[in-house]
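Side project, low priority. Logging it here so it doesn't get lost.
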Amino acid sequence: MPRATVVTETVRHELKSCPGAYVVLRPMSYGTKLGRSDQAMKMTLKSESGPRRRGQAASSETEISMLQKAATQIDFQHCIVDHNLEDENERKLDFRSFSDIDSLDPRIGEEISSLIDEMNNFASEEEVGNSSER
């Protein structure tokens, strides 16, 4: 019978944005992807509801930022198995902590996010969804 569970093999990636650095990634399970999508949906619905009282400012930009941070934290927590990235005090970064994710050099964070997206096909799913709406 064909295997239908997530492949547990990990892949080591040398980072171009930080010579000598690497991350070891594993793919997300479908349940983790659903949880990630659920977080995005909750925040999207919240942002679409808009202000409820007169004079209350809409905070959709803040909510979108929170959504991106929440998705990134889920991605980093579930997909990064190992790495050799440190802070200025030579302490290994802990990607379960958003303060460590938040302190990453943007080029390094973007590269890791792109590798995670490629591994989990997030970009290709969005492209398929957008092309089917046309």
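Brief comment: The radius of gyration is 17 Å.
Revisit when time allows.
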